[in-house]
Amino acid sequence: MESKYSRITLSTASTSTGKQSTTPLGSNTPASLTLTWDLVRREYPQNDQEARAYVDLLRDLRDGLDAHAASKGLALADGYELTIAAPAGSSNYEKLHVREMDQYLSFWNLMAYDYTGSWSDQAGHQAQLFGASSAELSTDRAVRWFTENGVPKAKLVIGVPLYGRSFMHTKGAGHAFKGVGKGSWEAGK
């Protein structure tokens, strides 16, 4: 199934008019631009076609931002930043073409949280630095994957939650639970 993102990227970014429409130009252009997938109904690319389209979009945005900076007389180093909110879950980051993406990004915002929650089978830490096993979601595992795939450590910004998650009727992390607490704005959070 084609996502709204891939339709936009594959159909508009392939034309010169589309490239201009996907690049935020104008007198009020922000000093930095961060892309999130929440705006396109899916959080991350679901397949290789969407991952390639994401690289194309980043390239076109980078080109547009650099051209806009040049039109304002700014050197590239003083121009506009382009960043993304990157996944910390392997089922999502392994689909990305990070080596290709990295050349267009100023830095990566690694969303190192929401590893567990009401959707999980077992209680756990929602933002654990290290997992109990090498297969478990953790910030360490995500950072190692990104750096092993070409992202310099200096370009990774680790996002941490400023909220907690609750699990009820459980023996603790790694054990089944039954229900989550009321939460402030959603159940369990």
Portion in strands: 5-15%
The largest sheet is: 4 strands, parallel
Strand order of the largest sheet: 1-2-3-4
Low-confidence stretches: 1-5, 8-15, 17-27
Oligomer: single chain
According to CATH, the fold-level topology is TIM Barrel
Q: Based on DSSP secondary structure assignment, what is the total number of beta strands?
A: 4
Helix-strand makeup class? alpha/beta
- Supply Rg: 19 Å
The CATH top-level class label: Alpha Beta
Instruction: Figure out the total of helices.
Output: 6
Description:
- This protein is of the alpha/beta class and 189 residues long.
- The chain has one domain (4-159): TIM Barrel (Alpha-Beta Barrel), CATH 3.20.20.80.
- The protein contains six helices and four strands, in the order ααβαβααβαβ.
- It has helices spanning 4-12, 16-21, 48-71, 90-93, 98-102, 139-148, and strands spanning 32-35, 81-87, 107-111, 156-159.
- The chain is elongated.
Keywords, please?
189 residues; alpha/beta; TIM Barrel; four-stranded parallel β-sheet; 4 strands; 31% helix; elongated; disordered N terminus
Topology, element by element:
Blueprint: H1 4-12, H2 16-21, E1 32-35, H3 48-71, E2 81-87, H4 90-93, H5 98-102, E3 107-111, H6 139-148, E4 156-159
Parallel strand pairs: 1-2, 2-3, 3-4
Helix pairs in contact: 1-3
Gist?
The chain has helices spanning 4-12, 16-21, 48-71, 90-93, 98-102, 139-148, and strands at residues 32-35, 81-87, 107-111, 156-159.
